[in-house]
Amino acid sequence: METLPMVTQAAYRDEYKIHLVFHDGVEATVDFSGWLEGPIFEPVRNLDFFQRFFVEAGTIAWPNGADIAPETLYERAKATAAA
After folding, report:
1. Could you tell me which residues come within 8 angstroms of residue 74 by beta carbon, excluding any fewer than 6 positions away?
2. What residue ranges define each of the domains in the chain, with the CATH number in brackets?
3. pTM of the predicted model, to two decimals?
4. What are the distances in angstroms from CA 51 to CA 14, 55, 60?
5. Which of 12, 6, 19 has the alpha carbon at shortest distance from 81?
6. Which residues contact 30 (CB under 8 A, 6 or more apart)?
7. Contact assessment for residue 18 and residue 60, using Cβ atoms and an 8 Å cutoff
8. What are 34-46's pLDDT values in tens digits?
9. Tell me, what's the pLDDT at 71?
10. C-alpha of 62 from chain center
């Protein structure tokens, strides 16, 4: 069984970009702008609110309950790091 990827560190970069570090050492700066659709992400589109993200349960989350699946972040991080 494969281990679920886990974000262990995250740092804001600029606009909607966060630098992510995963449990296995994969790291990359990921642009979240393409995921900020729908009612749950409406407050997150405000850059001040976006910057209030935190690491919770191995992924990135915001105070309003919005989050992105860690597998999604991991796949994007691996693709970004390889580019």
Report:
1. 5, 22, 26
2. 7-82 (3.30.2020.10)
3. 0.94
4. 9, 12, 11
5. 19
6. 17, 18, 19, 20, 73, 76, 77, 80
7. yes
8. 999 999 999 999 9
9. 97
10. 10
CA separation for the pair 45, 33 (Å, rounded): 8
Q: For each of the chain's 83 residues, which pLDDT tens digit applies?
A: 578 999 999 999 999 999 999 999 999 999 999 999 999 999 999 999 999 999 999 999 999 999 999 999 999 999 998 87
CA 44/CA 80 separation, integer angstroms: 22
Give the separation between CA 40 and CA 47, rounded to whole angstroms: 15
For 75, residues 6+ apart whose C-beta sits below 8 A from its C-beta are none
Residue 25 backbone class (left: φ over 0; alpha: ψ -120 to 50; beta: rest) = left
Question: Distance between CA 25 and CA 64 in Å, rounded?
Answer: 29
